[in-house]
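re: that chain from earlier
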Amino acid sequence: MLLASTDDHLHLKTAHALGYTDVPRDTPYRPSVDVFFQSVVARWTAPAIGLLLTGMGRDGAIGLKAMRTKGYHTIAQDQATSAVYGMPKAAAAVDAAVAILPLPRIADALVVALGAP
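^ sequence. v structure.
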């Protein structure tokens, strides 16, 4: 298991391997979920779901929008259940999320999106 636990960004090095990268170096968010989402768009060939939960700032909005544009299912947490509505709000502002849901409904939405019974 890899966690983005340093200033380096977690990303898909290939369609089947995770790794760390220090590029881009000038992003204000380190590690950045935008970098991860963009690597999914660039390298992942199977269906995917992008999920953006509560958080400060705008990180994730552009990457989630890229995932939606590619045809992946995308979800953002709603304002009422977010501790900080920065990241999901930024995603909503750029129409990055197919669904904006309260936290208690996200797990069921994932099950439905995955086509699980």
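The longest strand covers residues 9-14.
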